[in-house]
Amino acid sequence: MDMLLSIRVELSRTPLATALVYLPWNAAIHAVLATERETDVLAYTNGRGSRGKLNKVVLAYSGGLDTSVIVPWLRENYGCDVVCFTADVGQGEKELEGLEAKAKASGACELVVKDLKEEFVRDFIFPCLRAGAVYERKYLLGTSMARPVIAKAMVDVAKEVGADAVSHGCTGKGNDQVRFELAFFALNPELNVVAPWREWDIRGREDAIEYARKHNVPVPVTKKSIYSRDRNLWHLSHEGDILEDPAKEPKKDMYMMSVDPQDAPDQPEYIVIGIVSGLPVSVNGKKLSPASLLAELNQIGGKHGIGRIDMVENRLVGMKSRGVYETPGGTILFTAVRELESLTLDRETIQVKDSLALKYAELVYAGRWFDPLRESLDAFMEKITSTTTGSVTLKLYKGSVNVTSRSSPYSLYREDISSFESSDIYNHADAAGFIKLYGLPTRVRAMGEKGVY
Q: What is the residue-wise DSSP string for 391-404?
């Protein structure tokens, strides 16, 4: 049985002449626009669209204005069925409310929602954490890590529903278009990719609203945020409005995951992070699943104003952009893992790991998650942190995270060696010969400069 679509038909300019009619999805929709007094006939059939023919498209769907408009645009331009897909990566329950009704009202034949929180943290966030991947000294890659897990799920859904294409609502200026499409290419190169923002004539919010009105798509009535935000279990990003001027300070009411450090509790809080092979497993002795552990640390860290970053970064597409990020739980975990490594890794290993971490971060930022190079680096990181096991005690206080204790059964620290007291293992007199050999290049250069031969 065909699903029914509720549409408004304006019979005249007066609101009293408005009726609700119900038509099957594959019927032609006739809407007389009250303001233009013209008939807009949309043949929502399985025929060829104005730009070609696709059978079925899986659309990354949020329920906002842009993706709501993309649904009828795909049907009109490609003559296809549209399956909306929403990934739950921890953006919050409110973001998922009413999505099915919105998707179907826009013309979608189906909405698929998948809970990816555990997979997101376990298979994407934790490997980056273990690698110490930080982009341009500050960014903890919150959005960058979320895109490949969403794209992977979209490819899976496309196979399940028999779709021959996938689509996203990323603009032509951002990084996300690259991240999604590289993942699609890597996981199923036979899928067609449709990026409406690179094809259509819509150039802004007003154009989108007008398109929605003409195509009888319910426009979200919620007040549009002055910021462009992306939220998941790892972080919340803010862009736009006054942030577009790097000289302006963010407004206090912009933040949503963390309190202002000035308003944080006046008493510090101590927490203990348990780590096994470079990955966190417990908080204060309580073992938790990856997603549950991160959620708890977000709550604790947010209460103390932890994890606020304001930075100007270099986008993959070439331009600079200014963004503000809130990553309370992630900041705590990065501090804990790095501090435990100070006990378990030797100098040469730390230096090599840090150098490769930069490359790892660049690959993730650039959307190359499924590249063999990223996977090979991950194998190295897994091997090198196999002994990074132990616990770290942290002190949280008004936006700061400080280490107060660290311990590991694989610690390379030896008090009997490091102590200033003499020991059988380290003889102070041995340092003289070492210094002479280590400083030989310096001594030879100085002799040449002074003419001493």
A: EEEEEEETTEEEEE
Domain assignments of the chain as residue spans, ordered by start:
1-41, 46-214, 229-345+385-407, 421-449
- b/e string for 17-32 if b means 16 or more Cβ within 10 A? eeeeeeeebeeebebe
What is the set of active-site residues? 66, 147, 176, 228
Place of tokens 């990816």: 116
Domain covering 229-345+385-407 assigned CATH 3.40.50.200 in the classification:
no
User: How would you class 297 by CB atoms within 10 Å of its CB: exposed for 0-12, middle for 13-18, buried for 19 or more?
Assistant: buried
Contact call for residues 206 and 271 (beta carbons, < 8 A):
no
Tens-digit pLDDT profile for residues 38-62: 333 344 444 688 888 999 999 999 9
Q: CA 329, CA 315: separation in Å to the nearest integer?
A: 25
Cα separations in angstroms, 337 against 278, 306, 332, 442: 6, 16, 9, 37
- Burial annotation 53-73 (CB, 10 A radius, 16+ → b, else e): ebebbbbbbbbebbbbbbbbb
**pTM of the predicted model, to two decimals?**
0.86
